[in-house]
Amino acid sequence: MNIIRTYPVPEAAKGAAVAMGNFDGVHLGHQSVLALAKAAAVTANAPLGVITFEPHPREFFAPDAPAFRLMNAETRANRLAKLGVQHLYELPFNKALSSLTAEAFARDVLANGLGIRHVVIGADFRFGKGREGTAEMLQAFGKTYGFGVTVAPLVSDAQGDYSSTAIRQALSDGRPEDAARILGHWHRVDGVVVQGDQRGRDLGFPTANIYLDGLHLPKFGVYAVLFDVLNGPHKGTYKGAASLGVRPTFGVNHPNLETYLFDFSGDLYGAHVSVALVAYQRPEEKYDDLDSLIRQMKADCFEAREILSKVSH
Question: Which one of 95, 96, 238, 248 is most buried, by most CB atoms within 10 A?
């Protein structure tokens, strides 16, 4: 996949049929937009592209607000590549872009800058300064500036619309199964394994630790997880139990995700990993002594094994 971060783009990167949006989570609603863009690409004999923004506009306008993203830009790009996207236009969301009127965005960015042939958006997509642009306005601009526009209906089920907001709420509530229902896959936390305090090793439960900086924090507690090592000598899929939180038994700590892998031995420092949150087991707790903590960890691992024995990867 070709990732393009500036515009105007080279002629070779023009002429795509694209899906446009923030695509945080790349959930089933996003995938329905992408499916329509793929169909338009086939009809037009054009490459399939995605237009998205970095940083997320919400981060640009409220940089001090709590982290909310479900995935970082690298994880999003990897997910879109797996779905067949050929050109990812990762537009820099800055003062200049945010100041463009809706018509200027359609003319200068979509038509002249990227040279798109067709664009698919969700029915609730807004664009241009002050979010003035609507789906209907984009359809009118497309006729003026020479590109097709398809408006995808929102995807929902009996429990509501599929949205990144609904996924965040499910994760905050400790309902990873509901998040997976909207995503179409387990919610994953990707990162590089870093060296922690090595307390787990001292307790007989060595863990692989990754940071959660910049991401929405799911409910703190213990999870049954599927753990993919993406590179290195231990590349593969493992099962485990993970603690997500601040480790209150050991004082005040920065939030992270630490996973104990079942039936594993090896050094994972520096490995790129992806951790799927399969089931929430219990809240994070503070223990008065290490023996109590170790007993609980053994019980957590037993329960996680039982849960994961019934789960397909």
Answer: 238
